[in-house]
Amino acid sequence: MGxxxxxxxxxxxxxxxxxxxxxxxQAEWFEDYVIQRKRELWPPEKEDQVSHVIFLPPExxxxxxxxxxx
Length: 70
Fold this sequence. Notes:
single chain
């Protein structure tokens, strides 16, 4: 009984994360569910608004060549 139980537990331990990665990486599901839910929670101000955001450092502060605060 001990070996069968351990095989069952190991199967569950390996199957669950693999299944979650497989589900999370489905592009159709992501577009249909996640993006639609995001638009329901935070609707765009305009229909033609692009969802690209550029983050700039505060004025007077720059970034060095490595991307660190300078």
